[in-house]
Amino acid sequence: MKITEEKIKKLLLLFMITYPIFDIRYFYNSITTLIRVIIVFVLFSFALYFYKEARKNLKWLMLYYLLVVIYIIFHHFNALNFNSLVPGNFNYSLFKECLQVLKLIIPITYLYTLYYFKLNKEDYYKIFKSWVIIISGSIIILNILKLSYGSYSDEIILANIFTWFTNHNYIYSELASKGLFMYANQISMILLILLPNIYYQYLQKQTLNDLLLIIMILISALMLGTRVSSYGSIIVLFGLLCLYIFFVIIKKEYSFNSKIIFYTITIIIIYAVLLPISPANNRRNVYNNISEEISLNNVLKLSNNEQIKTSDEQLDKIDYITNNYEKKRIHKKFILESYPYQYDPDFWYDILMLPVNKRIDYRFLEISMVQRVVEINNNPKDKLFGITNTRIQNIFNIERDFVLQYYAFGVVGSLLFLGIYILLLIILFKNWIINFNYTSSVGLLILFLYLGASYVSGNILNHLSTNLIFVYTISAFISNNQHNNKCQMVETI
């Protein structure tokens, strides 16, 4: 059977349609990750085979790969020069490090591939719609049936969306649901970048189907219960409406359509009514109550029995931590497993003395532990090459992208692996200046949403689950702007 360009495009589209299925908890493992990597490189190989331009410009991608290899060498030798207070030095693995680097170079490889396949608008929007149906549809159905896994636990939720209105005895961890997907943060980001795409499509065609897809995204975003999904979605929808009004009144790109404005405002109002009873708001209230409760119980200053005044101060700190870390609400995984307090009681004693809002802030603790490890290692080259992603994961994953990459890979590695987003910013900003329209504005918005969600929630930039979906999404806007530029050139001629 002859392999044709059309058949490979169909393979690419099939791969993307089924992509969210790989993120279901039953399929989320190293084997499916490897399958994704292989498929991307197969598609990349066919892009080189079918397109002369792809082969002609390959030298730049090869140069990038060479720089990555050189970086890995320096990164590895820096990793070998490592000391900590914890036995085993958090078990660095060159093999695991190389696998993570491989995942980080996949996005630029895939972007290069998509650039030459030149999919049309319909191809892109078929995929976007299929993702909404698969992701939002499954979250909504499983929530209603109470068969969904919790966004903040691995347990099945105890109540569905209808309970939000009638029973206020449940807490967010029993209500927030992610369907069968592995990570709520990643799904939140995907929904956030799908919303502008579907809304854009709705403006173009104004069909009931697209309006229903928007509603599905928003309902599932509320069900997920993360900050990014619940608060981000309403902000984004309001921003998209303002953008539409601007391009209607100022730029005259669209004709005024009262139905679009009416439906959008109605959806925003209903969403705003549901938000206070949603799991995300419930979570915020729970954390506020915990902070107030602990603050009242500890009113004030350390009592005499909390002061460290013995001759053997180190031993006394260990005793104090042992007897008080649970009362101080320090998660036992942090203090017993990630960075055991027996090896660094000074650090954990100082943490226990912090205000309650810091002690229950997991992201603060994650970053603080890694900062302490870097401080103890005291190697200036860590700023350039990092202490390795392997070690950070063996301590505790930092749920804040950019910060994670800085400590894992250093300044050099961060620029090398995250430089694609700087490149995309330059491309999209240039297109926005040249083609100042709704489409180019939405493309730039999606990039900022992706990077903003990465920083706020973490677990995004390092994962194929999210970065390939983002690359596919943003390539639609790059392709569209290229088409517009060509049309302008033809008209000029």
Describe what this molecule looks like in 3D.
- The protein contains 23 helices and no strands.
- It has 493 residues and is mainly alpha-helical.
- Among the domains are: 124-299, no CATH class; 300-395, no CATH class.
Q: What is this entry, summarized?
A:
With 493 residues, this protein is an all-alpha fold. Helices cover 72% and strands 0% of the residues. Among the domains are: 124-299, no CATH class; 300-395, no CATH class.
| Sheet having the most strands | none
Based on helices, strands and strand pairing, what is the structural class?
mainly alpha
Low-pLDDT stretches are: 299-306, 486-493
Number of strands: 0
How far apart are the first and last residues' alpha carbons, in Å?
A: 43 Å
Shape: globular
Question: What is the count of helical runs?
Answer: 23
Helical percent range? over 70%
Strand content: under 5%
Report mean pLDDT, rounded to a whole number: 90
Evaluate the radius of gyration: 25 Å
* Helix-strand sequence: HHHHHHHHHHHHHHHHHHHHHHH
